[in-house]
Design goal:
single chain; 5 helices
Length: 65
Amino acid sequence: MYHNQIKKEREERGMTLLKLSELSGVSVGYLCHLERGSRKNPSVGIMEKISTALNKSITEIFFIP
């Protein structure tokens, strides 16, 4: 089941949305929608970019409640 930890992981690192966007190549707007839950089911490529930028696995960011 989809459940993302983007905001939690980002804030634990003291990272802004802008910084995560720069590191992942994913737009600030899209990241914001993912964090709020107004967008769901990102592609595997997007999940991989975000997870890599946060130095975590896709499972840790998107599938662990």
